[in-house]
Protein backbone atom coordinates (compact mmCIF):
# COMPACT_ATOMS: atom_id res chain seq x y z
CA UNK A 1 0.00 0.00 0.00
CA UNK A 2 1.50 3.36 -0.97
CA UNK A 3 1.15 6.53 1.01
CA UNK A 4 -1.32 7.79 -1.60
CA UNK A 5 -3.46 4.65 -1.30
CA UNK A 6 -3.49 4.96 2.47
CA UNK A 7 -4.43 8.62 2.66
CA UNK A 8 -7.20 8.26 0.10
CA UNK A 9 -8.93 6.29 2.85
CA UNK A 10 -8.74 8.96 5.56
CA UNK A 11 -11.99 8.80 7.57
CA UNK A 12 -14.47 11.63 7.85
CA UNK A 13 -13.60 13.96 10.72
CA UNK A 14 -17.21 14.57 11.75
CA UNK A 15 -17.83 10.83 11.92
CA UNK A 16 -14.73 10.31 14.06
CA UNK A 17 -15.80 13.04 16.47
CA UNK A 18 -19.31 11.64 16.71
CA UNK A 19 -17.92 8.17 17.36
CA UNK A 20 -15.75 9.21 20.29
CA UNK A 21 -17.87 12.02 21.75
CA UNK A 22 -19.78 9.79 24.22
CA UNK A 23 -16.54 8.37 25.64
CA UNK A 24 -14.94 11.80 25.96
CA UNK A 25 -18.06 13.06 27.74
CA UNK A 26 -17.83 10.16 30.20
CA UNK A 27 -14.17 10.97 30.79
CA UNK A 28 -14.98 14.64 31.40
CA UNK A 29 -17.70 13.76 33.91
CA UNK A 30 -15.21 12.10 36.25
CA UNK A 31 -12.26 14.48 35.79
CA UNK A 32 -13.01 16.66 38.82
CA UNK A 33 -13.43 13.67 41.14
CA UNK A 34 -10.20 12.09 39.87
CA UNK A 35 -8.37 15.34 40.51
CA UNK A 36 -9.72 15.81 44.04
CA UNK A 37 -9.23 12.19 45.10
CA UNK A 38 -6.10 11.50 43.03
CA UNK A 39 -7.57 8.56 41.14
CA UNK A 40 -5.34 7.37 38.33
CA UNK A 41 -7.33 6.97 35.07
CA UNK A 42 -6.76 3.26 34.44
CA UNK A 43 -10.43 2.67 33.67
CA UNK A 44 -10.73 5.65 31.35
CA UNK A 45 -7.66 4.70 29.34
CA UNK A 46 -9.18 1.24 29.08
CA UNK A 47 -12.26 2.80 27.47
CA UNK A 48 -10.05 4.53 24.91
CA UNK A 49 -8.25 1.29 24.10
CA UNK A 50 -11.49 -0.65 23.70
CA UNK A 51 -13.08 2.05 21.55
CA UNK A 52 -10.20 2.25 19.10
CA UNK A 53 -9.14 5.77 20.09
CA UNK A 54 -5.57 4.64 20.76
CA UNK A 55 -5.52 3.09 17.26
CA UNK A 56 -6.63 6.27 15.49
CA UNK A 57 -3.42 6.52 13.49
CA UNK A 58 -3.08 2.78 12.78
CA UNK A 59 -4.03 1.84 9.19
CA UNK A 60 -7.43 0.21 8.72
CA UNK A 61 -5.83 -3.03 7.53
CA UNK A 62 -4.32 -3.48 11.01
CA UNK A 63 -7.46 -2.63 12.96
CA UNK A 64 -7.15 1.15 13.24
CA UNK A 65 -8.94 4.15 11.75
CA UNK A 66 -6.21 5.38 9.38
CA UNK A 67 -6.67 8.95 10.60
CA UNK A 68 -4.44 11.79 9.43
CA UNK A 69 -2.25 13.66 11.90
CA UNK A 70 -4.55 16.68 11.78
CA UNK A 71 -7.47 14.44 12.77
CA UNK A 72 -5.43 12.77 15.52
CA UNK A 73 -4.44 16.08 17.10
CA UNK A 74 -7.93 17.50 16.67
CA UNK A 75 -9.25 14.58 18.72
CA UNK A 76 -6.37 14.81 21.21
CA UNK A 77 -7.41 18.39 21.92
CA UNK A 78 -10.96 17.13 22.54
CA UNK A 79 -9.55 14.48 24.88
CA UNK A 80 -7.42 17.09 26.66
CA UNK A 81 -10.50 19.25 27.17
CA UNK A 82 -12.10 16.24 28.85
CA UNK A 83 -8.96 15.45 30.90
CA UNK A 84 -5.52 16.86 30.13
CA UNK A 85 -3.87 14.08 32.15
CA UNK A 86 -5.11 11.34 29.85
CA UNK A 87 -4.12 13.16 26.67
CA UNK A 88 -0.57 13.57 27.96
CA UNK A 89 -0.46 10.01 29.31
CA UNK A 90 -0.87 8.81 25.70
CA UNK A 91 1.97 10.99 24.38
CA UNK A 92 4.54 8.21 24.23
CA UNK A 93 2.01 5.82 22.76
CA UNK A 94 1.06 7.96 19.79
CA UNK A 95 4.73 8.74 19.15
CA UNK A 96 5.67 5.06 19.00
CA UNK A 97 2.70 4.33 16.73
CA UNK A 98 3.96 7.08 14.42
CA UNK A 99 7.48 5.66 14.44
CA UNK A 100 6.32 2.18 13.52
CA UNK A 101 4.02 3.63 10.85
CA UNK A 102 6.94 5.45 9.21
CA UNK A 103 9.22 2.39 9.44
CA UNK A 104 9.44 -0.08 6.54
CA UNK A 105 6.30 -2.17 6.68
CA UNK A 106 8.19 -5.42 7.30
CA UNK A 107 9.59 -3.92 10.51
CA UNK A 108 6.54 -2.05 11.69
CA UNK A 109 3.79 -4.55 10.89
CA UNK A 110 4.03 -6.61 14.09
CA UNK A 111 3.67 -3.44 16.16
CA UNK A 112 0.87 -1.94 14.08
CA UNK A 113 -1.09 -5.16 14.59
CA UNK A 114 -0.57 -4.94 18.35
CA UNK A 115 -1.58 -1.29 18.47
CA UNK A 116 -4.55 -1.97 16.23
CA UNK A 117 -5.68 -4.59 18.75
CA UNK A 118 -5.65 -1.96 21.52
CA UNK A 119 -2.21 -2.38 23.06
CA UNK A 120 -0.50 0.84 24.13
CA UNK A 121 2.97 2.14 24.90
CA UNK A 122 4.44 4.40 27.55
CA UNK A 123 7.64 6.38 27.71
CA UNK A 124 11.10 5.69 29.14
CA UNK A 125 13.54 8.27 27.80
CA UNK A 126 14.76 10.68 30.48
CA UNK A 127 17.25 9.95 33.26
CA UNK A 128 17.90 12.10 36.32
CA UNK A 129 20.94 12.39 38.55
CA UNK A 130 24.55 12.52 37.44
CA UNK A 131 24.02 11.45 33.82
CA UNK A 132 25.66 13.88 31.39
CA UNK A 133 23.92 15.43 28.41
CA UNK A 134 24.03 12.94 25.55
CA UNK A 135 24.66 9.94 27.82
CA UNK A 136 22.36 7.24 29.12
CA UNK A 137 22.98 4.78 31.93
CA UNK A 138 20.26 2.42 30.70
CA UNK A 139 21.90 -0.48 28.88
CA UNK A 140 20.66 -3.21 26.56
CA UNK A 141 22.75 -6.39 26.60
CA UNK A 142 22.52 -9.39 24.22
CA UNK A 143 21.14 -12.37 26.13
CA UNK A 144 20.47 -15.62 24.29
CA UNK A 145 18.14 -15.02 21.34
CA UNK A 146 17.07 -11.66 22.72
CA UNK A 147 18.29 -8.92 25.03
CA UNK A 148 18.08 -7.78 28.63
CA UNK A 149 17.73 -4.19 29.78
CA UNK A 150 18.94 -2.57 33.00
CA UNK A 151 18.57 1.04 34.13
CA UNK A 152 16.22 3.64 35.54
CA UNK A 153 14.10 6.31 33.87
CA UNK A 154 12.10 9.23 35.22
CA UNK A 155 9.31 11.31 33.60
CA UNK A 156 7.90 7.97 32.41
CA UNK A 157 4.65 9.53 31.26
CA UNK A 158 1.89 7.01 30.69
CA UNK A 159 4.06 3.97 31.40
CA UNK A 160 2.06 2.91 34.46
CA UNK A 161 -0.98 2.41 32.18
CA UNK A 162 0.84 0.83 29.22
CA UNK A 163 1.48 -2.61 27.74
CA UNK A 164 4.86 -1.60 26.29
CA UNK A 165 7.57 0.92 27.17
CA UNK A 166 9.31 2.93 24.43
CA UNK A 167 12.79 3.16 26.02
CA UNK A 168 15.90 5.05 24.95
CA UNK A 169 19.03 3.04 25.81
CA UNK A 170 22.57 2.17 24.73
CA UNK A 171 23.75 -1.24 23.59
CA UNK A 172 26.32 -2.60 26.06
CA UNK A 173 28.17 -4.48 23.32
CA UNK A 174 28.47 -1.78 20.64
CA UNK A 175 27.70 1.49 22.43
CA UNK A 176 25.08 2.29 19.79
CA UNK A 177 21.95 4.20 20.87
CA UNK A 178 18.78 2.18 20.41
CA UNK A 179 15.08 2.18 21.11
CA UNK A 180 14.08 -0.82 23.23
CA UNK A 181 10.37 -1.59 23.14
CA UNK A 182 9.94 -3.45 26.42
CA UNK A 183 6.98 -5.49 27.67
CA UNK A 184 5.75 -3.59 30.73
CA UNK A 185 4.12 -6.45 32.65
CA UNK A 186 7.12 -8.62 33.55
CA UNK A 187 9.18 -9.30 36.69
CA UNK A 188 12.10 -7.11 35.61
CA UNK A 189 9.99 -3.93 35.42
CA UNK A 190 8.97 -1.72 38.34
CA UNK A 191 6.68 1.25 37.66
CA UNK A 192 6.27 3.87 40.37
CA UNK A 193 3.66 6.60 40.60
CA UNK A 194 6.04 9.10 42.25
CA UNK A 195 5.59 12.21 40.09
CA UNK A 196 5.41 15.21 42.44
CA UNK A 197 4.57 18.07 40.07
CA UNK A 198 1.81 20.51 41.01
CA UNK A 199 0.01 19.90 37.71
CA UNK A 200 -0.73 16.97 35.42
CA UNK A 201 -0.66 14.82 38.53
CA UNK A 202 -2.50 11.84 37.04
CA UNK A 203 -0.32 11.22 33.98
CA UNK A 204 1.67 8.38 35.57
CA UNK A 205 4.82 10.45 35.13
CA UNK A 206 7.11 8.69 37.58
CA UNK A 207 10.03 6.30 37.82
CA UNK A 208 10.52 3.11 35.81
CA UNK A 209 13.21 0.65 36.91
CA UNK A 210 14.55 -2.01 34.52
CA UNK A 211 16.27 -4.94 36.27
CA UNK A 212 17.24 -7.57 33.75
CA UNK A 213 13.94 -7.18 31.92
CA UNK A 214 13.54 -9.14 28.69
CA UNK A 215 13.51 -7.40 25.31
CA UNK A 216 12.40 -9.47 22.34
CA UNK A 217 14.51 -9.21 19.14
CA UNK A 218 11.82 -7.19 17.32
CA UNK A 219 11.91 -4.72 20.19
CA UNK A 220 15.40 -3.39 19.39
CA UNK A 221 15.37 -0.51 16.91
CA UNK A 222 18.46 1.53 15.92
CA UNK A 223 17.92 5.09 17.11
CA UNK A 224 19.09 6.58 13.81
CA UNK A 225 16.03 5.08 12.11
CA UNK A 226 13.61 6.91 14.44
CA UNK A 227 11.05 9.00 12.53
CA UNK A 228 12.61 12.36 11.74
CA UNK A 229 9.82 14.65 12.94
CA UNK A 230 9.58 13.02 16.38
CA UNK A 231 10.54 16.19 18.28
CA UNK A 232 7.82 18.15 16.52
CA UNK A 233 5.38 15.31 17.23
CA UNK A 234 6.11 15.14 20.95
CA UNK A 235 5.67 18.89 21.23
CA UNK A 236 2.40 18.77 19.34
CA UNK A 237 0.93 16.49 22.01
CA UNK A 238 1.81 19.10 24.63
CA UNK A 239 0.31 21.80 22.40
CA UNK A 240 -2.89 19.74 22.35
CA UNK A 241 -2.79 19.52 26.15
CA UNK A 242 -2.43 23.30 26.42
CA UNK A 243 -5.29 23.86 23.99
CA UNK A 244 -7.50 21.44 25.89
CA UNK A 245 -6.70 23.05 29.24
CA UNK A 246 -7.78 26.44 27.89
CA UNK A 247 -11.01 25.05 26.45
CA UNK A 248 -11.81 23.20 29.70
CA UNK A 249 -11.27 26.35 31.73
CA UNK A 250 -13.65 28.29 29.48
CA UNK A 251 -16.23 25.52 29.81
CA UNK A 252 -16.05 25.31 33.61
CA UNK A 253 -15.92 29.04 34.33
CA UNK A 254 -18.75 29.73 31.90
CA UNK A 255 -20.90 27.25 33.79
CA UNK A 256 -20.08 29.02 37.06
CA UNK A 257 -20.90 32.43 35.60
CA UNK A 258 -24.21 31.20 34.18
CA UNK A 259 -25.44 30.04 37.59
CA UNK A 260 -23.89 32.75 39.77
CA UNK A 261 -26.44 34.72 41.85
CA UNK A 262 -24.19 37.08 43.80
CA UNK A 263 -22.92 40.30 42.23
CA UNK A 264 -20.95 43.35 43.31
CA UNK A 265 -22.27 46.81 44.15
CA UNK A 266 -19.63 48.37 41.93
CA UNK A 267 -20.48 46.03 39.04
CA UNK A 268 -23.07 46.54 36.32
CA UNK A 269 -26.01 45.98 38.66
CA UNK A 270 -27.30 43.16 36.49
CA UNK A 271 -27.15 39.39 36.87
CA UNK A 272 -23.55 38.28 36.50
CA UNK A 273 -24.35 36.31 33.36
CA UNK A 274 -25.41 39.59 31.73
CA UNK A 275 -22.58 41.74 33.09
CA UNK A 276 -20.78 43.06 30.00
CA UNK A 277 -17.36 43.11 31.66
CA UNK A 278 -17.70 39.53 32.86
CA UNK A 279 -18.86 38.45 29.40
CA UNK A 280 -15.83 40.18 27.92
CA UNK A 281 -13.54 38.15 30.19
CA UNK A 282 -15.15 34.90 29.10
CA UNK A 283 -15.22 35.90 25.43
CA UNK A 284 -11.56 36.87 25.46
CA UNK A 285 -10.59 33.56 27.06
CA UNK A 286 -12.66 31.71 24.47
CA UNK A 287 -10.74 33.51 21.73
CA UNK A 288 -7.45 32.52 23.40
CA UNK A 289 -8.55 28.86 23.46
CA UNK A 290 -9.56 29.10 19.82
CA UNK A 291 -6.17 30.53 18.91
CA UNK A 292 -4.30 27.78 20.77
CA UNK A 293 -6.28 25.11 18.95
CA UNK A 294 -5.82 26.76 15.56
CA UNK A 295 -2.05 27.04 16.06
CA UNK A 296 -1.83 23.38 17.09
CA UNK A 297 -3.79 22.14 14.09
CA UNK A 298 -1.76 24.29 11.70
CA UNK A 299 1.42 22.71 13.09
CA UNK A 300 -0.20 19.27 12.76
CA UNK A 301 -0.63 19.97 9.05
CA UNK A 302 3.11 20.56 8.80
CA UNK A 303 3.76 17.24 10.60
CA UNK A 304 1.40 15.50 8.18
CA UNK A 305 3.47 16.81 5.27
CA UNK A 306 6.61 15.44 6.95
CA UNK A 307 4.94 12.04 7.22
CA UNK A 308 4.01 12.10 3.55
CA UNK A 309 7.53 13.01 2.40
CA UNK A 310 8.94 10.28 4.66
CA UNK A 311 7.15 7.76 2.45
CA UNK A 312 8.72 9.05 -0.75
CA UNK A 313 12.19 9.12 -2.30
CA UNK A 314 12.70 12.89 -2.51
CA UNK A 315 15.21 13.57 0.27
CA UNK A 316 15.31 17.31 -0.40
CA UNK A 317 11.54 17.57 -0.05
CA UNK A 318 11.71 15.50 3.15
CA UNK A 319 14.40 17.79 4.57
CA UNK A 320 12.24 20.85 3.89
CA UNK A 321 9.15 19.21 5.36
CA UNK A 322 10.97 18.26 8.57
CA UNK A 323 12.37 21.76 9.01
CA UNK A 324 8.88 23.19 8.52
CA UNK A 325 7.36 20.68 10.97
CA UNK A 326 9.89 21.49 13.68
CA UNK A 327 9.51 25.26 13.29
CA UNK A 328 5.71 25.00 13.15
CA UNK A 329 5.53 22.94 16.33
CA UNK A 330 7.81 25.42 18.11
CA UNK A 331 5.71 28.38 16.99
CA UNK A 332 2.55 26.55 18.06
CA UNK A 333 4.15 25.79 21.42
CA UNK A 334 4.96 29.44 22.11
CA UNK A 335 1.50 30.55 20.96
CA UNK A 336 -0.49 27.83 22.71
CA UNK A 337 1.40 28.25 25.98
CA UNK A 338 0.90 32.00 26.08
CA UNK A 339 -2.76 31.78 25.13
CA UNK A 340 -3.57 28.89 27.47
CA UNK A 341 -1.86 30.48 30.46
CA UNK A 342 -3.67 33.76 29.86
CA UNK A 343 -7.02 32.03 29.44
CA UNK A 344 -6.71 29.80 32.50
CA UNK A 345 -5.53 32.70 34.71
CA UNK A 346 -7.63 35.59 33.40
CA UNK A 347 -10.88 33.65 33.71
CA UNK A 348 -10.80 34.11 37.49
CA UNK A 349 -11.66 37.76 36.81
CA UNK A 350 -15.13 36.56 35.82
CA UNK A 351 -15.83 35.21 39.32
CA UNK A 352 -15.41 36.18 42.95
CA UNK A 353 -13.26 34.70 45.66
CA UNK A 354 -15.53 31.67 45.78
CA UNK A 355 -13.84 30.51 42.56
CA UNK A 356 -10.79 29.61 44.63
CA UNK A 357 -12.76 26.92 46.47
CA UNK A 358 -10.68 23.75 46.28
CA UNK A 359 -13.86 21.77 45.73
CA UNK A 360 -14.23 23.38 42.31
CA UNK A 361 -10.55 22.79 41.47
CA UNK A 362 -10.68 25.54 38.85
CA UNK A 363 -7.02 26.15 39.53
CA UNK A 364 -6.20 22.77 38.00
CA UNK A 365 -6.56 24.19 34.51
CA UNK A 366 -3.83 26.78 35.13
CA UNK A 367 -1.65 24.27 37.01
CA UNK A 368 -1.98 21.76 34.20
CA UNK A 369 -1.24 24.35 31.53
CA UNK A 370 1.73 25.73 33.47
CA UNK A 371 3.16 22.23 33.90
CA UNK A 372 2.74 21.31 30.23
CA UNK A 373 4.22 24.65 29.18
CA UNK A 374 7.31 23.97 31.30
CA UNK A 375 8.33 21.02 29.13
CA UNK A 376 10.91 21.91 26.49
CA UNK A 377 11.53 25.45 27.84
CA UNK A 378 9.84 28.16 25.82
CA UNK A 379 12.86 30.46 25.93
CA UNK A 380 14.94 28.03 23.88
CA UNK A 381 12.19 27.47 21.33
CA UNK A 382 11.77 31.23 20.94
CA UNK A 383 15.52 31.58 20.33
CA UNK A 384 15.47 28.77 17.76
CA UNK A 385 12.59 30.46 15.95
CA UNK A 386 14.38 33.81 16.01
CA UNK A 387 17.67 32.32 14.84
CA UNK A 388 15.94 30.66 11.91
CA UNK A 389 14.02 33.81 11.02
CA UNK A 390 17.06 36.11 11.12
CA UNK A 391 19.93 33.81 10.17
CA UNK A 392 18.26 30.85 8.46
CA UNK A 393 19.71 28.49 11.08
CA UNK A 394 18.26 24.99 10.91
CA UNK A 395 16.40 23.98 14.09
CA UNK A 396 17.68 21.37 16.53
CA UNK A 397 15.77 18.12 16.08
CA UNK A 398 16.89 15.95 18.99
CA UNK A 399 17.82 17.33 22.39
CA UNK A 400 18.41 15.90 25.84
CA UNK A 401 18.75 17.07 29.41
CA UNK A 402 21.61 16.17 31.74
CA UNK A 403 24.55 17.37 33.82
CA UNK A 404 26.72 20.14 32.41
CA UNK A 405 30.21 21.21 33.46
CA UNK A 406 30.76 24.58 35.16
TrEMBL record:
Pfam family, any one: Acyl-CoA_dh_2
Record-annotated Acyl-CoA dehydrogenase C-terminal domain positions: 240-376
Keywords, ordered alphabetically: Monooxygenase, Oxidoreductase
Matches recorded under Gene3D superfamilies: Acyl-CoA dehydrogenase/oxidase, N-terminal domain, Butyryl-CoA Dehydrogenase, subunit A, domain 2, Butyryl-CoA Dehydrogenase, subunit A, domain 3
GO biological process, alphabetically ordered: L-leucine catabolic process
Keyword Oxidoreductase: yes
The keyword Ribosomal protein appears for this protein: no
Source taxon at top rank: Bacteria
InterPro entries noted in UniProt: Acyl-CoA_DH_C (IPR013107), Acyl-CoA_Oxase/DH_mid-dom_sf (IPR046373), AcylCo_DH-like_C (IPR036250), AcylCoA_DH/ox_N (IPR013786), AcylCoA_DH/ox_N_sf (IPR037069), AcylCoA_DH/oxidase_NM_dom_sf (IPR009100)
Name of the protein in question: Monooxygenase
